[in-house]
Design brief:
The protein is α/β, with parallel strands linked by helices and about 425 residues long. Helices cover about 40% and strands about 15% of the residues. A seven-stranded mixed sheet has the order 9-8-7-6-10-11-12, sandwiched between helices. Strands 1-2-4-3-5 form a five-stranded mixed sheet. α3 (about 130-140) crosses α4 (about 160-175). The radius of gyration is 21 Å and the shape is globular. The relative contact order is 0.13. Bound molecules: nicotinamide-adenine-dinucleotide (NAD). Nicotinamide-adenine-dinucleotide binds near residues 200 and 252.
């Protein structure tokens, strides 16, 4: 039971991302024993910064954008979390994403706290030069919060290695140093890690393999549906296809396609690259966005945005396992329904942790100025992720709870133990 007052600066949004995060914290408190005394620390971000980002557009107009950087919890180390550019970004969303980073980093035992950032902008409406000015001004505005031992940003939705390069350059110029370790997901030429681009999707595949092995389901021939064919979804789909699985449905922002015999992924991605959409891809049927959730599969990977898997969709879903490639794709009510229906849900905080594990490797490599081969990176990531999943699977078994609860229990115990050991200042 919370003894703190609620946050005054966010209005509650039922089933919103921050409420989803809080609901999960509520559900694990009973498993925290004496550490539950500190649980309120997880219900409040450590600090949240809102910045105004004025930039000159190519036509001479001055446009203002709103940006955020949130440190959710720093008990276990510097903040770590991506930067999102999207027209729907809000402060509560960034708070939730930062909270999930705290839990994710602790669930896989990385020496990081949780952070996240974002700008409310549709980046597709900006030229490359405008995007660069936006990124550099945002980086300067949040500059006092970030750094290799404070908070290390990384890519998220609509940001990539180029955006990280601009962030790294801005910090370097502002500080008169070569600040390679201050962001991860950089181009390899600037101290990025081999294997980072594919790491999140690769991690989703590792988790799929681990679950399949435990429930006795061969991946070969399994039907896989993927929502979101970006950095995470496209790589996961490629690796599942490589394991002999059949990609039966794909969805992106503009269209959904299906083929029960298997979609030719290369052809679908080439079609999207050429036409801007999956819709009309030869060899597949284009279906409505809602019909995507009715396609029968063994594995469903939501890898787009949060809140996609609603109660109504969860009730209709015909799949055996949901691997959360996206952050927060399942609403709490949908989660309950999936649990009642016996569908295995691997939560985001472990299913998509491959990316932050390799970000951690990048940070380590930058510190040492000694770089690993891609094989070393993927092998070590696989080892850490599969080991963390084993512990979460075991905890779920031991407590008789869902994997999400187990992952949060493992992670929250670690975070709150660190909180307890550090003590409250003053
Ligand atoms: P991305 O921008 O590369 O791809 C996003 C994909 O989702 C695109 O295919 C887009 O068309 C699709 N999409 C967006 N809105 C949609 C909608 N309403 N309906 C259907 N499809 C929609 O982003 P990404 O980096 O692949 O990230 C996807 C998710 O994975 C996000 O939740 C992100 O936070 C999470 N994630 C990303 C990483 C990473 O390393 N990139 C790491 C961990 C978690």
């Amino acid at each position: 039971m919370s003894v703190s007052e609620g946050l005054s600066f966010v209005a509650p949004v039922p089933d919103g991302p921050w409420e989803t995060f809080l609901a999960t914290i509520d559900s694990v408190e009973r498993y925290l024993g004496p550490l539950a005394r500190f649980a309120d620390t997880l219900r409040r971000p450590r600090r949240a910064l809102i910045v105004d980002i004025p930039i000159e557009m190519d036509d001479g107009r001055i446009a203002h954008f709103e940006g955020y950087r949130v440190h959710h919890n720093l008990a276990r180390g510097p903040g770590k979390g991506g930067v999102r550019y999207d027209a729907a970004v809000t402060l509560p969303e960034v708070m939730a994403l930062a909270g999930w980073m705290t839990v994710k980093n602790a669930a896989v035992n990385l020496p990081f706290g949780g952070a996240k950032g974002g700008i409310r902008v549709d980046p597709k409406q900006l030229s490359r030069k405008e995007l660069e000015r936006l990124t550099r001004r945002y980086t300067s505005e949040i500059g006092f919060l970030i750094g290799p031992d404070r908070d290390i940003p990384a890519p998220d939705v609509n940001t990539d290695a180029q955006v990280m390069a601009w962030m790294m350059d801005t910090c370097s110029v502002n500080s008169g140093t070569s600040a390679t370790g201050m962001v991860t997901g950089k181009p390899v030429a600037l101290g990025g890690s081999l294997g980072r681009v594919d790491a999140t999707g690769r991690g989703v595949h590792v988790i799929g393999r681990e679950v399949a092995r435990r429930v006795g389901m061969p991946l070969e021939g399994a039907r896989v549906a993927v929502q979101g064919v970006g950095n995470v979804g496209a790589v996961a789909a490629r690796l599942f296809a490589r394991s002999g699985a059949r990609i039966v449905a794909l969805q992106d922002r503009g269209a959904s396609i299906v083929n029960p015999e298997g979609i030719d992924l290369g052809a679908a991605l080439a079609h999207k690259a050429a036409s801007g959409s999956l819709g009309g891809c030869p060899g597949s049927e284009t279906i409505s966005a809602e019909a995507f959730w009715d396609v029968e599969s063994e594995v469903l990977v939501p890898a787009a945005l949060e809140g996609a898997l609603t109660a109504d969709r969860a009730a209709r879903l015909r799949t055996r396992m949901v691997l959360e490639g996206a952050n927060g794709p399942t609403t709490p009510s949908a989660d309950r329904i999936l649990g009642e229906r016996g569908i295995v849900v691997v939560p985001d905080v472990i299913a998509n942790a491959g990316g932050v594990i390799v970000s951690y490797f990048e940070w380590v490599q930058d510190f040492n100025s000694f770089f690993w081969t891609e094989d070393e990176v993927t092998h070590r990531m696989d080892h850490i992720l599969a080991g963390a999943f084993e512990q979460i699977w075991h905890t779920a078994d031991e407590l008789g709870v869902a994997l999400r609860t187990a992952a949060f229990v493992v992670a929250c115990r670690r975070v709150l133990e660190a909180r307890e050991q550090r003590g409250l200042y003053p």
